[in-house]
Structures
1.
Amino acid sequence: MNWKERYQDKLVSADEAVSHIRSGDKIIFGDWVGEPAALVAALVRRAPELREVEIIHGMSPGPNDHLKPELSESFHHT
């Protein structure tokens, strides 16, 4: 298998990637342009089933749905 095939074999959707995050996990977002917008959106979609996920991040370019007060039981920000 060449590198292109190996790369393609590892690609997953944002929803699949965040499906591995569990309540109580700690995750780190990159700052500004390094923030993975698709992953943040997928994580917000999972908020109802998650509790106390600690998100370590700096400044965010937005959208900032993960910072909404109603998601405070799902996400803790550092």
2.
Amino acid sequence: MDAELRRSITTFLQNYVDKCRVMVVGDIMLDRYFYGNVTRISPEAPVPVNLIGDKKNVLGGAGNVAHNLARLGCKVYLAGLFADDHHGHLLMKKIQKKGID
């Protein structure tokens, strides 16, 4: 990346990104990460048996894009569908917590 482009990007991020309004439209997903210890391989199939010690839920898909833009300082509007169930409620809490409309 040349110096002029780098300066332009830096200027934009420092002075103008908080004035941006962005609409993100797409699939809103809940990405789930499971952490644990693999102690053996299952005898029924060649897959690891994992004793889960911790898990983490984060915004995925279009929700991840909206989250990243909000972290940059943009005003973000998110449009998409998700279910009216436990996972959908987790998504809505995460979206609201990030200040995404």
3.
Amino acid sequence: MKQGISKMTVWAGVVALALGGVAGAEVTFTKDVLPILQENCQTCHRPSGTNLSGMIAPMSFMTYEEVRPWSKAIVKAVTDKVMPPWDASPEFHGVFANERTLTDEEIATITAWVQQGARRGNPNDAPAPLSFPETGWNFGEPDLVGDLPASLFVKGENEDWYDNITTVLTDEQLSEDRWIRSVEFKPGSEVVHHIIGHATSADHAGDTTRGMLGGNAPGADQSEWPAGYGIHLPKGSAITFAMHYHKEPGPGTGKWDSSQIGFQFHPKEMKVTHPVNIFPISHGAFEIPPYHSNWKVGSSFTFEEDTTLLSMLPHMHLRGTKAKYTAFYPDGTSELLRDAPQWDGNWQTGYDLAEPKTLPAGTRVEMEFWYNNSEDRAAYAGFNAARAISFGGPTTDEMDLAWMTVAPKAEKEFPGD
């Protein structure tokens, strides 16, 4: 209890100090609040807003008329740090390129606006409206789209259903080898829990041990890699969708799905010398006891060559609460790479480093995940806390996949370069 009061007191002090800077001035929507919403919120909170693997904003914040009824709810969401959704600890501010956070000053501005009556202000003070591409894809227009061979029907009696579906890219779709710079998975229905993509030659079609393209889970965004880094997609490739569907079973709950994968390529003239590899660190053989509220699972991986770390994405299910990655270097030092002390399974974000990090040969990266299998957690997450939980595909089981996106530090030569 004392710890909770202390945190509230500290936060109240921070807000009070920040409010001091705006208390004497009139705060209006058009001049002060709208620019904050444009920069941090409207990419999702708009008609046809960003679909982060099934997480879609339920309301639009494009105009005063749309925002005003939600003003008090917005204050609560931003002061509780629930929105924008971002679970990396504050010490990582500025480390990740796709960070979604508000400053204390921005939170104080929104709070002051509501306390002063949520006034509209002078329309002439408003910044120009933002325009968003309406391609149906978060990353813009794809260079290539891979579709399921046919729509799939998830039957009413299904709760968790898995299927690996493969489609071979035609010469018309992919007339020559290309290097992928960005991948986006687009769920075709609300019953998609996650998709994992694989690219192989047609001779190995359906082999999900090869050619990882990445994947998605609730809250995930597209994957993007810098110049010189990418995944090779040869002509004649086969794309396999490893699908996991999850829903409440019952009559009339069946759904059709037509999920897709979109690719954007590096320019043909670009020399790509760092092939991207996506893989998970995982223990896989754990068992969480019944009713345990803070069970820890850990594993590690040691890199045999100098490696560049690009991104990290922890994946758990309903019981996951915390996720941590730590690097132990050959010289005996260590570094916390990522810490999510309040991990949220609804927002399984990939954390893209603003500056790629070198992991020298011999570096061991350790993952630590924590799980809450208590009755309190079960009451709102919808699972059975009375059974021991092990690694498994169903959403009501658990996973401990500490995904990493890496590439060799040394440049590699490829045929045809």
